[in-house]
Predict the 3D structure of the following.
Amino acid sequence: MTAPLWTLDALATACRGRIVGAPAAAITGISIDSRTILPGEAFFAIRGDVHDGHGFVAKALAAGAGVAVVAEEKLADMPGGGRYVVVDDVLEALRRLGVAARARTGAKIVAVTGSVGKTSTKEALRLVLSAQGRVHASVASFNNHWGVPLTLARMPADVDFGVFEIGMNHAGEITPLTRMVRPHVAIVTTVAAVHLEFFASVDDIARAKAEIFLGLEPGGAAVVNGDIEQTPILIEAARAVGARVVTFGEGEGLDSRLGTIALLPDCSTLKATVLGEPVTAKIGAPGRHVAVNALAVLSAAVLAGADLARAALALADLAPPEGRGQRSSLRIGKSEALLLDESYNANPASMRAAIDLLGQMPVGLRGRRIAVLGDMLELGETGPALHAGLAPALEAAAIDLVFCCGPLMRSLWQALPAERRGAYAETSNDLQPILLEAVSAGDAVMVKGSLGSRMGPIVKALQARHGAVAVSEDASA
């Protein structure tokens, strides 16, 4: 019989709560969503940006929640005869439970942050470490003030590895999260012009990312991108806490260095040196940026006690997460077009990486490479210039047509030569019907933008219209 995730007494003690009613003695999981809660799980009624979880306690209990963790001040409003652990503050109780989960495990913990590539790097770590032990990792992009403690609270005591994604858009946000996670290895994938609305410079972003080193366990390691201007800032911050520093990238003298690489439409192969050991690997997801981040993954795996050769072999099974490079085939008449879904989010660095990837995609007879781009948000006063600055990348990748939407993307639209202009619209809703009519057989289409620019619905519309089929690694585009 599988041991429960938490006993009721252990959960109540960790949360500093009191038991009311007759909750289940064994807690099988932790949830903050009454729509997806499973029988036996504990429902934490946290207050979100839009909804207060206390309004969904009745639904969670009806769905079989073993217990609901509620605030003392809300208890009188809860359904009578319910099953409760009553606390002073529900989010704080979740944090306490996360801290208790971290304290009880002997797992090796890896934490990941960076301006670009956090989630894909986290998923690659999950993949390579799963071949060598039991792994617990963040789901989706649970990387904020509730996502990190929720992921910790869900961690079984007996896992071998834990992998956590930590995000931020303001200085000071990473510090309490990394001190909760207490990683043995901390990765900074890269530093780029992201969230500039809240920072004076990219150097300040680097300092905020470097907060991840403040939670490192004694003797821990910092894995940092060695190819960026902010590398010295990251190294200085890591050394200030006594961490071992491991650099990765393409430059001379780095600890884990890319040697040769073959970039293919659906994968990459590379030869590299990782912490002094030669390695050859096939990576199931395409893109130079993915290959470079694979060096961080392999370095962290070794530092966490995994075998390098087995980790490298596992990379062949890597697939892009949803909205971050997934490919599908669109049926158009008796032929096909290729759709590259990069719609999850965007910033100047990830936008250039996606444009470069589109440039590697094969096209059919009379096919075109088409970029469909929405606004990149949170860039502050630099936004218009950073959007216009994408024009050279589009030219270098030989992109045939560019479709733009959003007020910031107007700057790029105006910077494009006439022959590269597909169409411009103020919103993704307005652009969608124009694009649907424009896509033809043989085209390769990439869709990308910040979440707020709502590019995801364009992807769904293309897939619905043309009966999309996922493209496997070995399939021809």
User: Anything to note?
Assistant: DSSP finds 16 helices and 23 strands in the chain.
